[in-house]
Specification:
Layout (H helix, E strand, L loop, with lengths): L2 H10 L1 E3 L4 E2 H9 L5 H8 L11 H14 L4
Antiparallel strand pairs: 1-2
Helix pairs in contact: 1-2, 2-3
Length: 73
């Protein structure tokens, strides 16, 4: 996937459905130093909706793991 397409998909893909937080917002928080799910939740407000992070927590952890594997953090 091209970087442009990935950037567009990051903006429209919601990781936290309860709070409507995009993958782009989560990735930015990770790049800015939030390297745990708890840190990301504190930075962007994910995990504070009705599901209390049960849906987005694993997705956020997967993004953190992927970004570590890719050497981005």
């Amino acid at each position: 996937m091209s970087e442009v397409n990935e950037a567009v998909m990051d903006k429209i893909t919601k990781v936290c459905l309860c709070k409507s937080i995009s993958r782009a917002t989560i990735k930015k928080a990770i790049l800015d130093g939030a390297h745990t799910v708890k840190d990301v939740n504190a930075a962007v407000g994910s995990g504070s909706g009705p599901c209390r992070g049960q849906r987005c927590g694993p997705k956020i952890q997967a993004l953190i793991d992927t970004m570590k594997e890719e050497g981005k953090i």
